[in-house]
Amino acid sequence: MDSNGYNDRTWLIGGYPHTEALRMTERIRRTDFGHIDIAVTFDDPKAYNKAWTLRLSARLAADTEMMEAVCNERPDNGQEHWIGKTSDAQKTAVKVAPEVLSKYVGVYKGIYLRNARTVEVTFSDGALSVSVNGGPKQPIVPQSETKFSGTGLSYQFMRDDHGMATHVVEGHVSGDYKYERQK
Questions:
Q1: Long-range contact set of residues 60-66: C-beta below 8 Å, sequence gap at least 24
Q2: How far is C-alpha 23 from the chain's CA centre?
Q3: Phi, psi of 25 (to 5 degrees)
Q4: Hey, which bits of the chain come out as E strands?
Q5: pTM value?
Q6: Whole-angstrom Cα distance, residue 122 to residue 134?
Q7: Which of 44, 108, 116, 120 is deepest in the core (most CB within 10 A)?
Q8: What phi, psi does 163 have (nearest 5°)?
Q9: Within 10 Å of residue 167's Cβ, how many Cβ atoms?
Q10: 110-119 long-range CB contacts below 8 Å, 24 or more apart?
Q11: Buried b vs exposed e over 33-45: b needs ≥16 C-beta within 10 Å?
């Protein structure tokens, strides 16, 4: 299924921005009874150098009720949190020393909504960026020495006694998800 005609005020899965040029292609394949593979390709030449794909799997949960989720069903569905830009976070940014930022660089892994998730944090030109599950790097803006925002999600670093990050907590509308530092 192909989708287009988006405006630039929403965020993609993982908090990635896009432009009106976004074209999403969803491919759904039933691998066997009870299992579906889903691949969503995001192609937006105005926002990214190349198209990128998010792969998911779904499993039948027999003898359970299907939960309904309709985005525009009620006014308090969280959509107000889906808009924004990195420039909005810049307005409330604070200065954090490069030696502090460098202690957050690493790969963090954990579970997000029953799926494995990897958050890679990099440091370049005096700023941190995150890449979720191998997706494009997105800048994050410090709101305090340990809290960052700017991707549609928030990131809070948990530190040891030496200031080294041991975990990162990724904040979503649906809740917070804690990922452990791997390296």
A1: 60/33, 60/34, 60/35, 62/34
A2: 19
A3: -120, 120
A4: 2-3, 23-32, 35-43, 52-59, 106-112, 115-124, 127-132, 138-142, 147-149, 154-159, 165-172, 175-181
A5: 0.56
A6: 12
A7: 108
A8: 85, 0
A9: 15
A10: 110/177, 110/178, 110/179, 110/180, 111/177, 112/170, 112/177, 113/174, 115/56, 115/57, 117/170, 117/177, 117/179, 118/179, 119/155, 119/168, 119/170, 119/179
A11: eeeeeeebebbbe
What is the rounded CA–CA span in Å between residue 149 and residue 132? 14
For the chain, 183 residues long, give each residue's pLDDT as a single digit of tens.
Answer: 787 777 766 767 656 778 888 888 999 999 998 889 999 898 999 888 999 888 888 887 777 666 555 444 444 434 344 444 556 667 788 999 999 999 999 999 998 877 899 999 999 999 999 999 988 898 999 999 999 987 778 899 999 999 999 999 998 766 789 999 997
Residue in the structure block whose two tokens are 């009720």: 65
Q: By C-alpha distance, which of 51, 127, 55 is closest to 89?
A: 127
DSSP 124-148: ETTEEEEEETT---EEEEESSSSEE
- DSSP annotation of 161 reads T
63: Cα separation from own chain's centroid: 31
Structure tokens at 159: 């530190």
